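Final report, closing paragraph on structural work. Over the funding period we assembled a curated collection of sequence-structure pairs, and we close with a single example.
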Amino acid sequence: MSQTKVSNIESGKLTPSLVDVELILEALGADNPISAEILSLARTANTEWQDHWSSSRRGLDKKQNELARLEAVSTEFRFFLPTMITGLLATPDYVRASLARNSGDMSKTVAKKLERQQILMDSAKFFTFLLTEQAVRWPLASPIAMAMQLDRLASVSRIPNVRLGVIPLRMVGPVVETPLSVFTVYDRRLVQVETHTGALILRDHRDVSAYRDDFDRYESYAVFGDECRELLTEWSMSFTRQRQ
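Its predicted structure, as stored:
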């Protein structure tokens, strides 16, 4: 470990990862009780909880700015979406429907969400989106809006640096671990796990590795390319027929 890094940790300019803490404890020959306590503190320092109410008070558009900054400094993205379609893939109607339960003027937040979609065109960044059939077909908006949303997914799947796959119910067997929550992996830097009341930010390398492994397992059940687009077209047409 460089002296600069040690100095930055000592001065509070850098939060050490668990690996950093483990290396320092080993170098210092710290005994087990002290090591266990310090490692517990380090894990807490590498975990962040962002509750929905605090985000609402600050303004949900501010959360969009934070996500945009994180996306700007990341290169590889893995989105696991078992419940609904993420903002980077959403049409304006779908975005508005997803924010319907929030009070107040959501126009800034809608605009920020749509603005963030430009990052998909950055060829230096690579995206993999995994959506379950439930997420794709959940009728969050009107039938025609849902049909347009599914057409949007098919279009995005053709962007060269984007891999978009769906996990059809027919692909799911009893051996598949039940998906528990939406999560996004940013490089090997951190994981954001979303719940109904907020988001958990995990920076511990063991957490990041665990979620990357989960993602790989779910990805093995997904269909991509033409097969994915055929399903999206079929489901889009089912929404179109509902309107008729």
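The CA atoms of residues 95 and 110 lie 6 Å apart. The radius of gyration is 21 Å. We thank the funder for supporting this effort.
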